[in-house]
Design a protein that fits this description.
This protein is of the alpha+beta class. It has 2 domains: 298 residues, no CATH class; 95 residues, no CATH class. Helices cover 31% and strands 15% of the residues. The protein contains 10 helices and 19 strands. A 4-stranded antiparallel sheet has the order 1-7-5-6. Strands 11-14-13-12 form a 4-stranded antiparallel sheet, with no helix packed on it. A 3-stranded antiparallel sheet has the order 2-4-3, with helices on one face. The radius of gyration is 23 Å and the shape is globular.
Amino acid sequence: MPWSVPALRLGRGWVMAPDPGSLTARWERLVRAEGAERAELFGVSRARTPQSAVPALPGQATGTGRFAREREDGRCPEPVRIAHGPFDQQWLIPDHRLIDAARPELWRVADAAQLFAVEQGYGVRPGPEPAVLVSALLPDGRSPAGPPARIRPLYRRPGGREPNLAPGLTALLAGRLGRPVTAEEVVAWAVAVAAPSPAGAVVPFTADPGVWARGVALGRRLTSVQLRGAHGGDRPRLPGGRRPYVRAAVPERPEALTYDAAEEVLRIGTGRISPVPAGAWEFTAGGARTLETWFEGRTRLVEPPAPGTLEAIRPSRWPQEWTSELLELITVLALLAEARPEQARLRAEIRTAAGASAGAGARTGSGAVGRAELRAAGVLPVPSAARRPASVLDHHEEGPEGQFALV
């Protein structure tokens, strides 16, 4: 997937929140302020000030006049749901005037047909962590503790057109496997077998049709879990008897998140959720325990926002929606953790086949498709044009101060 985009750089934390209501309240507080107070609340950076003139984000109906001229009665743009970090989902004000580096090229191709592969940054990994995640929501590519991720859209154009794959890759794999290969299968395969490395996610390819079929099937299951019902799929569910339930209501202001491994109970203050498999609690991504990261993002136990700032505007009590989101996140992590042994066995089988192929010096009929074969087939090196975003010549976008741009 040669075209990749760096993580979003917001520049100011107040433009994103776990609930849309806080964003609307923050906007209203900001537009009521004037002069130096507005600039202070805004959070001036080298890339953005209230005087910055920038185009609208593709697909978003937001103002392009300088924010300094935004009137007190100006309405907040409709917040959009985005994928925040490895497994969180939060809300963002999609106003280009407020975001240092929003990556417009991603917004340009984000639609109902798009699938984003998120290559996790390599950092300190205390245990097995996913190397590639997927999202139907536009991801911000952030990481709790490690380096930011690289975002790789599956399609280079809106409407699910022009797969973002190295030219010739699917044809080569189809010839070696003796069956058609789609771009969606390549991504599913990567989700199942990718391993992290300092140079990026390593995705070995097999020439064994049976191994390929099992890897693609596993990757599709993992993808369906991560998409949480998007693209026409089902929302993730654990079998009856293993589904997490709220045994005691979450209090209005929970102060701590703890886990009882013996009873499989997750405690949120005085609230209790069970059963919660140990695999869900121990699941880490970006060098941090996922459930703890999710909880801290809503309670700000780490570096609470200073009073008087826009980030300090947030729910005064725990919304019921967050409990529902937590139950689904537990389910997602439990299902992904359960699949890890199957992923490990598949990777081991691929390594064994690759070693045997190398020892025999074989190519046709061997168990692996290596870098040398990719080069011989012209798949590598990837043309420089494939690493750049595609032009969208039939799409009008509003530029700074209401001008129109043709991209």
